[in-house]
Amino acid sequence: MGFLSTAVGWFLSLGSSVIVMIVLIILGLVFRVGWQKAVRGGITTGVGLAGLFLVVNVIVGALQPAVAEMATRFGVQKTLVDVNWADAGIAWGWPGVAGLIVSILVVNILMLVLRMTKTLWTDVWSYWHGSALAGFVWALTGGNVLLGILAGVLYLVAGSLMSDLTAKKYQEFNDMPGIGVPCGTTVQASLFAMPVVWLLDRIPGLKDWDASPEGIKKRFGIVGEPGVLGFILGVIIGIFAYGTGTGDLGIAKILGLGMNVALMMIILPRMVSIIAEGIVPITMSIVQYMRERFKDREIYVAVDCAVLLGHPAVMASTIILFPLLVLLAAALPGVQMLPIASLAVVPFWAGAVVPYTKGNVVKTVIVLLLYAIPFMYFSTWTATSHTAAYQMMGQYGDQISQGLKLASWDMGGDILGTIIQGVFHLFGFGA
Amino acid sequence: MSRLIVVACGAGINTSTIAEDSIKERVAKEGFSDVEVKRILMADMEGYLGRTDLIMVVSMMKIFRTFDVPVFQGMPFLIGSKQEKDVLLDKIVEAIKKA
Predict the structure, then answer these.
(1) Helical spans, DSSP H, in chain B
(2) What is residue A402's DSSP assignment?
(3) Which residues 22-81 of B are in CB contact (within 8 Å) with A?
(4) CB–CB of B78 and A347 under 8 A?
(5) CB–CB of A328/A376 below 8 Å?
(6) For residue A280, what pLDDT band results from cuts at 50, 70 and 90?
(7) What residues contact residue A286 under an 8 Å CB cut-off, 6+ apart?
(8) Which of A8, A16, A398, B48 is deepest in the core (most CB within 10 A)?
């Protein structure tokens, strides 16, 4: 026992990027992708993870003093730093990730055999939403890996059930027979949209109000580009933080913050994509295996929510939503995170809602403004377990002990994820 | 001069990686040493459309617009059988030869 706990302790002390490399190489060998692909995938993912944390370090260093300055100047309590998809780092780096992958595969196959779901969860990358939640619960329960896995599996199972409800609509609207999108972030937006759109359609005047997606894209499209958006937001925060009385130094700081936020908006998704570059080839063999196993049943093959973004109304709605969401988060009392990195999730929400609004931009914007409100509050509420997860993985320990708190919409603000965390709170964890 | 194929998806993270992986493997097997396969964000598409070395767009989404170069819908890479994948790859190879 003593030896075992020493060995486990040593393994965990290796740090998440080394751990994920070893775990992926082992997974690759188990799934027989060949040792070359396994080693390449493991190292690539480890590098992506390390790079992701590097970028977050830069942005924390730039943003934290700025939001702190804003707080002392104006008394605005928006001090949580938005790291959004850095949560993919928790997802692939927390100690239980391999256990979670195997568990949800087994549970999904069982559910298919028992005909409890039609969704064949082949999109292994999208497990990350469940795995990030699992990481939060792992932190919340003081390091209980099994409870973490349980929470993650619950979330992913719910995702496959919600996918059953939305699959037909996605298939028709996007002309993609046979697919389903169990990714929780996305399908929750669809479920939310159903009653809201029904209601909007009964309000006279609003029913037929629309805006031309092409026109919006032509005029304001540049704001939809992550780098430009990041620079603008960084400069605005900079003006509030350093705007008056510091002269040239103030301007230098303002422009510098703009560049740093733009850097985050461009580099953060790139780092996530390096992680995916490592994981995807290793998990392709699982996909192949599961697909052949259920060849002759009517099933929905899970694909990433990115396939839903094709309709022009998606980007048009997103562009309108960006400033509105930032203003809303700034105005709502009790919301402590200004969304910056988290805005990256908005197009995916829009992709899930557009099939229900039939591509109507105005309705899509209204639905998502309402949908974002719980995310704003929930990301504030879950910041503690969210931050603890980073700390337990050995990231940003110094800054966190000095009061840094990290938050996000995807997965920190996720509605279902917050409910699951709430259940663990009810059972007395993390009280 | 090298020839460029872009694989576009919503975030340039997951689905385009899957397609890129399959296309790259086939391109290497066919021995097209001058063909570069690059995955991009749909939002970055405009920047690539002006490039003279662009020979093909593979989109992981439904396409609601037209392009000057051949366009392929990459869904079979995600959910197709091995046979459907090979059919699409054959078409892509044909188009590379013509470009």
Answers:
(1) 15-30, 45-49, 75-79, 82-98
(2) T
(3) 39, 41-44, 59-65, 75, 78-79, 81
(4) no
(5) yes
(6) confident
(7) A31, A105, A122, A124
(8) A16
Q: Which of A291, A351, A352, A346 is nearest to A324 (CA)?
A: A346
Whether ipTM > 0.90 holds is no
Confirm if B21 and A280 have CB atoms less than 8 A apart: yes
Instruction: Give the separation between CA A191 and CA A163, rounded to whole angstroms.
Output: 10
**What's the pLDDT score for residue A52?**
84
User: Any idea which residue has 């704001």 for tokens?
Assistant: A223
Q: Tell me the shortest Cα–Cα distance from B83 to chain A, in angstroms.
A: 12
Contacts of residue B9 in chain A, CB cutoff 8 Å? Answer: 304, 306-307, 309
Residues of B in contact with A125 (CB under 8 A): 13-14
pTM reported for the whole predicted model: 0.83
pLDDT in tens, A315-334: 888 888 988 998 899 899 99
Residue A173: closest CA among chain B residues belongs to which residue?
Answer: B62
Cβ proximity of A326 and A146 under 8 Å = no
Q: From A307, which residue of chain B is nearest by alpha-carbon distance? A: B61
SS3 B59: strand
Q: Name the more confident of B38 and A284.
A: B38
Task: Note whether A131 and A152 are within 8 A (CB).
Answer: yes
Is there a contact between A14 and A5 (Cβ–Cβ < 8 Å)? no
3-state secondary structure of A120: strand
Alpha-carbon distances of B87 from A11, B24, B39, rounded to whole Å: 45, 15, 21
